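Per-residue structure
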Amino acid sequence: MIRFLLALCGVGLLVAGCDGNLVQKIDQEGDSLISEYVAGFNATDEEVYVQQFPNDKAAEFMKDNVPVFECPDKELEKTWYFRWWTFRKHVKSTPEGFIITEFLPEVPWAGKYNAICCPAAHHFNEGRWLKDPTYLKDYAAYWCREKNDARRYSFPAAQAFLQFYKVHPDMDLIKDSYEDLKQIYTAWEGDHRDDPDGLFWQGDGHDGMEVSISGGLSPDATGYRATINSYMYADAVALSTMATMLGKPDEAEVYAKKAEHIKTLINTKLWDESARFYKVIPRHGDGSFSPAREEHGYTPWLYDIPKPEWADAWEQLTDPEGFKAPYGPTTAEQRAEGFKVFYGGHECQWNGPSWPFATAQTLTALERHLHRQGEGPVTKKDYFETLQTYSDNHRLTKPDGTKVCWIDENQDPFTGEWIARKLLLERGNKYHERGKDYNHSTFCDLIISGLMGIQPQLDGTIVIEPLLPEGEWDWFSLSKIYVAGEEISLIYDKNGSHFGKGKGFFVYVDGKKVFESDTYAIKTVL
């Protein structure tokens, strides 16, 4: 059961009331909305690769599993349902249970059953909001069995499992995965550190970020990167937390000390004070920083690693010479000498194009920064506008001029064209539409955790602190959010005219009103 506590930054009231008819009405209207959106998506879709839930089962799956979101911004709303529609395509049944795929066609660099760990943390962040936890429970068990595949690419497995646990708490997940996760962690320590007490290294390609300015095509171009080191810090924290949950205080202390050591190394060695940014140190160089700021330098903010006074790094996100672009953010700062958007060579380059993986990761890092430290050099409005740009990026203009919802690999940050798709089509690649419906990022989690601010905690409480700037919308609703089996619903009606149930912001649990306020610009703890 959700613990009912209250902590407010603003004016609000904890109430005990029942208005289940309103929530039921919104849920029912949501089912109609899903049917409408799915019909539109299916009508324009070329269904080449089919897994567990084909298009004719999409509406049923979504009605059973995904949250209902309505808002005045219909393009953002459309992208929300589109991303759940595409996520459903990647639920794959195997002889060993369900997994979540990245590509729909089978690719040679994948592991067993076409699984790839590179985007798996995104899969857990997004998929945890499905009502049925079976898919991700099976997926977690898969990575525990396939430990070598879990290290083909950088992947903070323990941290990802804990994010899932916060929404669907099940101690069996912790008990069953803890020893396997320890083995995965130890393996990283054994072969991705030159010094047992030093920074971890990784190649940009095995970070999923090939041909980056700090990396390149050479297999020897490894570096001490903020990505892999932040993931190892996060996993050490997660393992310490799991050990505490399992009554292993000595092991909890070991991992806590590992985490603190890595955090110190990240902040003393990878922070470039002159650039005011985290940068890569090439592994076989002279110890100097790579010359460019790269978007993955925001990774430490995912885990509260940076010092508070380093928040000015976020100014680069909204700087047109930094990462801001019409279809951005860019993966490298535009002022950098190595920045380019190149329609040649390797089809997947991270030296300038916009990548959904990086955009989602950056927005998640920004969400966590704003929730921890509040506004400063970066604001809720910056989050909202970057999210809107990201939503608008989910489009493709077909040869006949029609525009459809689309998610693919990398994107021209100035025109919105999908670069890898164009190159692969020109080159006659054997994979028909390899990147179509690409599952390499999140979107819906950015609305749930960020814009609507729903933050389940390990102690069973739920913090609700929307990042939607005040005055942007006169109404919104988000329902069928299931945490520990109970439905959370948020409803806002500025003047009471949209839903007809009064003015203000309301929180419901299983159809019962538990909180109301004049404003959503408030921090609530259930």
